[in-house]
Amino acid sequence: MSRRQNRYLRHTYASLMISKHIPIKFIQQQMGHSSIQVTLDKYGHLMPELYEIGGNAMNDVVI
Asked: Which of 16, 19, 29, 44 allows an S-S link to 40, with CB 3.0 to 4.6 Å?
């Protein structure tokens, strides 16, 4: 398997876990990332609901 194929498989695996709402900490461990920040930096764009949840939470605090 080439490095490119391996990268595609890893990305697909992470993307599928995210689509099934698997906890990000579990995904971090499965991917072997050194921190949860690495996972969020790489795959955060696949989780737009995080921004919505965070925005809604801040609206509840401010309003």
From this structure: 44
